[in-house]
Amino acid sequence: MTTALKSIKSLAPLLDRVLVQRIKAQTKTAGGIFLPESAVKELNEAKVLAVGPGGFDKDGKRMTPSVAPGDKVLIPQYGGSPIKVGEEEYSLFRDHELLAKINE
Amino acid sequence: MTTALKSIKSLAPLLDRVLVQRIKAQTKTAGGIFLPESAVKELNEAKVLAVGPGGFDKDGKRMTPSVAPGDKVLIPQYGGSPIKVGEEEYSLFRDHELLAKINE
Amino acid sequence: MTTALKSIKSLAPLLDRVLVQRIKAQTKTAGGIFLPESAVKELNEAKVLAVGPGGFDKDGKRMTPSVAPGDKVLIPQYGGSPIKVGEEEYSLFRDHELLAKINE
Amino acid sequence: MTTALKSIKSLAPLLDRVLVQRIKAQTKTAGGIFLPESAVKELNEAKVLAVGPGGFDKDGKRMTPSVAPGDKVLIPQYGGSPIKVGEEEYSLFRDHELLAKINE
Amino acid sequence: MTTALKSIKSLAPLLDRVLVQRIKAQTKTAGGIFLPESAVKELNEAKVLAVGPGGFDKDGKRMTPSVAPGDKVLIPQYGGSPIKVGEEEYSLFRDHELLAKINE
Amino acid sequence: MTTALKSIKSLAPLLDRVLVQRIKAQTKTAGGIFLPESAVKELNEAKVLAVGPGGFDKDGKRMTPSVAPGDKVLIPQYGGSPIKVGEEEYSLFRDHELLAKINE
Amino acid sequence: MTTALKSIKSLAPLLDRVLVQRIKAQTKTAGGIFLPESAVKELNEAKVLAVGPGGFDKDGKRMTPSVAPGDKVLIPQYGGSPIKVGEEEYSLFRDHELLAKINE
């Protein structure tokens, strides 16, 4: 999706949506040699940038999201709404679509 | 959809529907040079014009909508009901289809 | 659908159904000149003629319909059950399918 | 569906089912002239012959049907289970599929 | 489905299932003349042989089935699980799939 | 599905799953004559070997399964998860998929 | 899915997700002879490495997962989200997708 946003920080996800940015794969080996582009795979890891207030359960109560800004998460292979701000790409997932937290 | 409305202001969305107008992309560069039409992309940002009273939860209580008139929102790539009033185009979305609020 | 009804007034919608009649587009310009037929578009505006008693929520309580006879409404592009009485055409929609009220 | 029923009166619909018989279109004009068969359209009006005790809501309580034997109703264009008893044809609809009552 | 059952009586339907046997169409006319096989249609009438204890509603309570052994019922044109015991054929339907009771 | 299980007894079904083994059709006639393989049909009867603790209803309470180990049951023509342990084949069904108990 | 994880231990499944690793089939016979690769079948047995805190029931309460880290489980033939960490492969299943516990 195309936006004219100046900064991704102006985006506040609604309901149970979670704004993430995919973590870029390293393009150099540990020894500092640049990898050929075909060897750089897109990772399914992402950093949580912003989290909506939570969706509603069937009694109209907010459900607390499972993640918080700053969390590193495992995202599914498919799905999510892509957003482009300048040259950077982001995605919006629903809270329950995120697979796992990554603790480091 | 075609209407004979004199003004979009006469439209009061029902239930959880939200009336928005897509924000037009700039057709000039910052320096004032006109962009060729092919370089002007349709934005997924929209301004909320009117909001329905909210849908019903399963106990028959109204659910408060997540947005209010005047809000700027990120709309999904597909979906929504297009409405034409005069030369202007508008869309109706359901509250939960809106992706994020845009704070400026 | 074909009926042998003498008058549309004999039709009492059941549950959450709403009987509407599409508003006919003007076939003359403001200045009184007749528009060619190809320029007359079918409008998505309709007048509510009759409203059912409301559907049931999951606890068996009637849900009050959102519109009332006499209301002008925006109807969706597709859907509804068409009914023909004499030369006139009407439609039955479910309450939640109606998009917006039109206030004049 | 084929039955060996002697009379349609022996049929007691179960749950929310409603037994109706389509009203036959007139095959003569008001002036008594017979219409050619191609001009006789099948009507979407039907007479209610029998009504089941009502389906169950999610708490196991019976939901009162919207129609009663003797009612004239508008039936949908498609759907319903056709039943043939002798030369006569009948249909079973679910209560919520009936569109409107016809008051005369 | 193929079984090695000695008697259909050993079958006790589970939950909301109902065991029925289709009533065979008469192969003779009232006057005793045998009908050609092509004129003998399969009937949608069946006799209830056994009824399960009932399915559960959403609160875990058993829902009383609508029919009892010995009832004659109208079965839908399609559906049901066929069972063969010796040369005889039977069917298992879910309670809510049965269309009507036949009172004689 | 392939397993390295030493014994099927080590398998404890989860939630509402039921472990069954299909009953083998007789390959001899009552008089002791071997049937040609083409005449031996796969039966839809199975013996219950193990039963899960039951699924959860919508209030989070366990629902008691309908069958117990040792029960003989009628299984549906299609469905179930096949499991192979050594040369023997077993299946896992969900409790509600089983059609009937077989009482002998 | 591709990750840059250093260790699978840094993965904490969300909601009702369960992280498992498939048990490798033996590549030698009991007598110590190596099996040809075509004779080594992928097993549907897996070891549970980590378990999410549980999904929510419809009243917003956590549902206790059926398995715990260290459990050996039977996994379905299809489904699950594959994850690769270094040369090792893992899968994420939802709790209710696991078929059985394997007790040894």
TrEMBL record, chains A, B, C, D, E, F, G:
<protein>
    <submittedName>
        <fullName>10 kDa heat shock protein, mitochondrial</fullName>
    </submittedName>
</protein>
<dbReference type="GO" id="GO:0044183">
    <property type="term" value="F:protein folding chaperone"/>
</dbReference>
<dbReference type="InterPro" id="IPR011032">
    <property type="entry name" value="GroES-like_sf"/>
</dbReference>
<dbReference type="InterPro" id="IPR037124">
    <property type="entry name" value="Chaperonin_GroES_sf"/>
</dbReference>
<dbReference type="Pfam" id="PF00166">
    <property type="entry name" value="Cpn10"/>
</dbReference>
<comment type="function">
    <text>Eukaryotic CPN10 homolog which is essential for mitochondrial protein biogenesis, together with CPN60. Binds to CPN60 in the presence of Mg-ATP and suppresses the ATPase activity of the latter.</text>
</comment>
<keyword id="KW-0143">Chaperone</keyword>
<dbReference type="GO" id="GO:0051087">
    <property type="term" value="F:protein-folding chaperone binding"/>
</dbReference>
<dbReference type="GO" id="GO:0051082">
    <property type="term" value="F:unfolded protein binding"/>
</dbReference>
<dbReference type="GO" id="GO:0005524">
    <property type="term" value="F:ATP binding"/>
</dbReference>
<dbReference type="GO" id="GO:0005759">
    <property type="term" value="C:mitochondrial matrix"/>
</dbReference>
<dbReference type="GO" id="GO:0046872">
    <property type="term" value="F:metal ion binding"/>
</dbReference>
<keyword id="KW-0346">Stress response</keyword>
<dbReference type="InterPro" id="IPR018369">
    <property type="entry name" value="Chaprnonin_Cpn10_CS"/>
</dbReference>
<dbReference type="InterPro" id="IPR020818">
    <property type="entry name" value="Chaperonin_GroES"/>
</dbReference>
<comment type="similarity">
    <text>Belongs to the GroES chaperonin family.</text>
</comment>
